[in-house]
Design a protein that fits this description.
Length: about 240
């Protein structure tokens, strides 16, 4: 089943623009093939995952083209709004499920990188859709903006360590089971938006997580010194 989804060419299956479900293949991949609750994702190999990533982007481009085709000859704003809203809402639901899938992946498995790639592709497609049809989905766009701004609306905690050094400590806390979550990605995604450094006001949780793949010796030493300082302070209580 997985190989079928990964290798089927996006240009080989005809679509009925007026009646077909434009997200059919994308929905099957996100809801089933890459959903750890419904599929044994450990059976997916790297080649299958790379093919899925490639086809995923192609399918999203096809969806945008079909949306243009469906709205090009419409002169009623209400009809355009109805179609665009339908496309946009479906995209948001896919992104939500893709994020849930990502949270359930094991970080040392290639599927984690695929999951991140798919989430970014869905988010980028959403940005393209909002840029072109923003006036038709104004309510949804405003809702998205409010949700995304919530972590920024509060005062951020400034840390004197660098982004990479914070990442090392969070990774260590996860490995030592001092912080419990379904995956380390969840830890970074939930904590990092509330942090800042002297050089970076808005830290990318994804960039911080990726920095832990290749830890620099100097950053490790500084992180150790920071933890030793905490130990000294605690002992003095």
């Amino acid at each position: 089943m997985h190989g079928h989804f990964a290798t089927e060419s996006g240009g080989q299956h005809p679509r009925n623009i007026k009646q077909g479900y434009p997200y059919a293949w994308l929905d099957e991949v996100v809801e089933v093939t890459l959903n750890p609750q419904k599929t044994n994702i450990s059976e997916l190999d790297l080649q299958q995952l790379l093919l899925i990533e490639s086809k995923f982007d192609q399918e999203l481009q096809t969806v945008l083209k079909e949306l243009k085709s469906n709205t090009f000859y419409l002169f009623s704003s209400k009809k355009i709004k109805a179609i665009v809203t339908h496309y946009y809402d479906s995209l948001r639901l896919l992104e939500q499920q893709a994020m849930e899938n990502l949270a359930g992946y094991t970080d040392n498995h290639p599927i984690a990188a695929t999951g991140e790639s798919l989430v970014l592709s869905l988010q980028n497609t959403g940005e393209v859709l909002k840029k072109r049809y923003g006036k038709y989905v104004a309510d949804q766009v405003a809702e998205d903006a409010n949700i995304r701004k919530q972590p920024i609306a509060i005062s951020k905690i400034r840390c004197t360590l660098s982004v990479d050094q914070i990442g090392i400590i969070l990774k260590a806390a996860d490995d030592a089971k001092l912080i419990i979550a379904s995956s380390i990605s969840v830890i970074f995604r939930m904590i990092v938006p509330f942090l800042s450094t002297g050089n970076t006001k808005n830290i990318s949780w994804n960039s911080m997580r990726k920095s832990t793949y290749h830890i620099e010796q100097m950053d490790k030493e500084i992180a150790i010194q920071a933890l030793e300082k905490l130990i000294t302070v605690i002992r003095g209580y």
